[in-house]
């Protein structure tokens, strides 16, 4: 059966509400701009939360805009920089599913089309309102006959389209939920990467903090193998807020604790700690999910560093109170988690592989004994898998291998790589 993906634009495909942003551009020099901004934002939220009909909200917002074609050009440039992070990194999904992805929005084609077509979305699959202009290019209204300008417009549109197959809806607002309520779609996913509307979340089939999560749940191809929102980042000690903000923007699930307790460390994929709060060697040895430690200060001892290395856990540290560490540590951690880069680690061999967007990247950490690379490659050869690139570095304790392979292989391949006797840690990166 065919599948279709109905995706909202404002606060879903993009991080912002486009009409709100247009108002900030068009009313920049208006003496009452702050008051009008607030009115437009309140009208947007009232509609998205189901407290005001969409028709009433749209009419009132357009009247307040005082915008023209030149303002729209500025808005488009702005919106292209505001595409939601998890959408922008999954361009390959849109390229491979051009016939199944539909943008359905109460916004306007004039600013939606230039943004989403850069992600391989077909113009004929973009459904939105259209502005009406006067001879000078000023926005004076919109097409009231378009079903998307009316209350329940998304439901009306889908009835007209009569798509045959399983339909999945992704959005942040009440109008997106109405598709599920009407029985028109199989599942509604409340998208919360940019905003959480409680009235919408309560009615969703699934809450998806990122597009990665949506793709993961539905077993669809994605840029990263495992959604960041499912990876717990344990935070202990005095950690700079800017460092934590970077991790939040990446989508990690931050958990703050006073001390490093075993039960929380054993659940964590990432640990942020300061110089006064570091795990013990025993805790490191029992932290089966832990992949990386970001220490804001120096690691307590060489023994701790070596224990982490032996367990396949990389550490990035920086001198205490170094003004760069609020930026240095999270960037190093993110580069390791996203691309496998180990540069500037205090306990892993140094490797900075280039990203390969047309391959799958596999990371294999093993005890440093002869012959492991041959065993890895023997698995690939036996399954006729083409290696696009391969990188091996070692230190006294471990071997660290990154292999980029062509897509298209059985999961048994991954199981065989994990089963190599000297394996410490293995993961599919993307």
Automatic annotation (TrEMBL):
Give me the reactions it catalyses: O-phospho-D-serine + H2O = D-serine + phosphate; O-phospho-L-serine + H2O = L-serine + phosphate
**What InterPro entries does the record point to?**
ACT-like_dom_sf, ACT_dom, AHAS_small-like_ACT, HAD-like_SerB, HAD-like_sf, HAD_sf
What Pfam families has UniProt attached to this entry?
ACT_AHAS_ss (PF22629), HAD (PF12710)
Q: Which cofactor does it need?
A: Mg(2+)
The UniProt transmembrane annotation reads: none
Q: What is its EC number?
A: 3.1.3.3
Segments forming domain ACT = 361-430
Please state the pathway this protein functions in, per its UniProt record: Amino-acid biosynthesis; L-serine biosynthesis; L-serine from 3-phospho-D-glycerate: step 3/3
Q: What is this protein called?
A: phosphoserine phosphatase
Q: What is the lineage of its organism?
A: Bacteria, Pseudomonadati, Bacteroidota, Sphingobacteriia, Sphingobacteriales
